[in-house]
Amino acid sequence: MDDLIERLRAGLPAEALITDPDVTVSYGRDMAGFCAAGTPAVVVLPRTVEQVRHVMRTATALRVPVVPQGARTGLSGAANASDGCIVLSLLRMDRILEISPVDRIAVVEPGVVNADLSRAVGELGLAYPPDPSSWESCTIGGNIGTASGGLCCVKYGVTAEYVLGLEVVLADGRLLNTGRRTAKGVAGYDLTRLFVGSEGSLGIVVKAVLALRPKPPAQLVLGAEFPSAAAACAAICAVMERGHTPSLLELMDRTTVRAVNATTGMGLPETTEALLLCAFDTPDPAADLAAVGELCRAAGATEVVPADTPAESELLLQARRSALPALESLSTATMIDDVCVPRSRLGEMIEGTARIAEKYGLTIGVCAHAGDGNTHPVVCFDQHDPEESRRARESFDAIMALGLELGGTITGEHGVGVLKKEWLARELGPVGLEMQRGIKAAFDPLNILNPGKLF
Amino acid sequence: MDDLIERLRAGLPAEALITDPDVTVSYGRDMAGFCAAGTPAVVVLPRTVEQVRHVMRTATALRVPVVPQGARTGLSGAANASDGCIVLSLLRMDRILEISPVDRIAVVEPGVVNADLSRAVGELGLAYPPDPSSWESCTIGGNIGTASGGLCCVKYGVTAEYVLGLEVVLADGRLLNTGRRTAKGVAGYDLTRLFVGSEGSLGIVVKAVLALRPKPPAQLVLGAEFPSAAAACAAICAVMERGHTPSLLELMDRTTVRAVNATTGMGLPETTEALLLCAFDTPDPAADLAAVGELCRAAGATEVVPADTPAESELLLQARRSALPALESLSTATMIDDVCVPRSRLGEMIEGTARIAEKYGLTIGVCAHAGDGNTHPVVCFDQHDPEESRRARESFDAIMALGLELGGTITGEHGVGVLKKEWLARELGPVGLEMQRGIKAAFDPLNILNPGKLF
């Protein structure tokens, strides 16, 4: 270990190296529960590509595992340290290198905070759509590593669709350029997409070319209250089947609505079994909301409230934004699941989750990126009660099993990390897993890049 | 070889096996010029996944190369046979298995013709946007193999963005499922995207889950004539910089305009140095066209003609559609290049191509998916003149060199095949190439899947 520190020091400024265990311990984990985390040997915070290359060359020479980290807002333990590892934090590589309105691209370092980029391109009339809930603190590098989603995905898609090209430091310190700066390109296998969502297991992203869009008009939001989750899901299916393209289509179940009421005093009726939020950023959002309002009423909505102004819309969105904190206030701990099903199966997913909550005797609130069929069941439990904690973990697993049964995936946007490793194997099957491992071996033959994550 | 045929016959119906050399020779090549093609040992036309698996198991057992084929409309020789290979034609696996308007997906076999799918989903109010020029004959499997583009890409993106999941027969006959039926999903490395554009070198796609969109309104087209290509490119940059989202933005240079005039009697003024076509499928396309018309005039357009009706629009699009046949009529042979540059460099690309035409003493017409920066310089030459043919090949290469110099890629949508193998190595560099080869080896360790293509 002394050798490791000495070697690292040879290519890094003193301030880029943290060895004090009282400090390094704070880099131990991301925001996921139920995930093992080890103690890093050292934390490095490089500012340049050359410094990252030095770190990786050192790691390869000494066979030391490297765990790349952004803002550690992840929810699957993918950024958790392993014992004796080098934590490679990209937070100080935080420059926006270029924004081109004509080419509609931005070139950034991995430590740029999502919201900082959004604001910078916004000033030029552009948008970088991916908007995970943690957008005020999460980094673009982390977004790329975990292939993050967000509220906008139903219209604008996920991070993967906005990454055009990458500069990557490989396990042995060599530099790889993937992709392009152009709108299109098909030269060879799409390595760029391979890195998106690879959770730091294939290489260290040190630069990214991102696609931008013209900034859309402000969105207008509608809230609709339903007497059952099934009715709300029928409305969602009708909206999508009729060819609407909402910029947001979110669902909160009864448990979530009540928790939000309790913590914010929002005064939603206690009879509400499901609250649907739908938004449009089209040229005539009021007309689109009127059409959706009709579909909601036809599906049985008891109340349909379209906002007239962006300010009223903002109030409605507050309810959605306060959902997670509200559910977290119900117990000493929560686990947030991330099952995505075909949207035609959303109703079954939500009803099935309610049955799972009953079976395990737990409170499970569901909020969902409903337009995408991406549910976030939040399992509330007392972490100081081992038996209840066990039931929480079992219900968490039962939710994933249900998702797979309905033709879905165990993770719509949070990733696998260490939390869902066993479930990834179940979703992919042995052939799929073998192919994934083959790719890992091609990029990281010594298995030093975030080992023990994914599979 | 007798052994090969016997073994194949054991798992295929008689009508799925062609051994007559007079017939197999017609499966020798796609539509690319300047590309070597060998003589297949046998052509197989399976109808089921199980039959494809039998073919691949046989190929693996006997170490016989397999060249997968769709409609052979490709332009890079990726579907060209190699000597003694099995040509695996997927044309008879042509069923549309499912269309779901709620989930906005279609599930198809690889031999489905692009236009057939478009029409089938169109009847349900949906669209499958990717629209390569060959859409009336090319197959979805071929589109996936080559990651095809088309006219719509500037707004709707390329094939890659519409492939959600795949069923693939691996080199050894095992079955691999990738991706999902859901709108989102991040379970493991994105193998789906890896297969898109892999030119049949990683596995045989036997089923695809495709994303659909609501059918957009009919588009309205504007034509604008410019006194120089530079002025037209300035207009294109202005359109994109101002945040417009055209559904089509195409450019034809002087050579192309004159060729179209000559073959169609379209009567465009001979003074036109560049013709720009721009379309919108927005709720108010006339207003969008008016705004673009202003930008064209400000950039120096001598004539701006917005269509008032879809029928008039169709007439304007005829000019674009007749561009390639018109250029082909100028000589005994043509080579179509496919260089994509950042759209801010499009003017330099077109001017540079004109200089290359002059230097090599050849006619080179350029039509371009201008909104994407994707140019198709068409080199016209006499194939019976060896010296002119040599100059044609050299100018073709010079165009790619220029594209790379301008920060572009050697192929925006046609792929690498055998035509651009050397250039792929140049674009990717040694590290990139090594990583690509590592992936190939992980999927196809015996190198029997379309060997000799890509790299």
UniProtKB/TrEMBL annotation, chains A, B:
SUPFAM superfamilies: FAD-binding/transporter-associated domain-like, FAD-linked oxidases, C-terminal domain. Its cofactor is FAD. One of its GO terms (molecular function) is oxidoreductase activity. Keywords: FAD, Flavoprotein, Oxidoreductase. It comes from the Bacteria. Residues 36-215 form the FAD-binding PCMH-type domain. InterPro entries: FAD-bd_oxidored_4_C, FAD-bd_PCMH, FAD-bd_PCMH-like_sf, FAD-bd_PCMH_sub2, FAD-linked_Oxase-like_C, FAD-linked_OxidoTrans_Type4, Oxid_FAD_bind_N, Vanillyl_alc_oxidase_C-sub2. Belongs to the FAD-binding oxidoreductase/transferase type 4 family. This is Putative oxidoreductase. The lineage of its organism: Bacteria, Bacillati, Actinomycetota, Actinomycetes, Kitasatosporales.
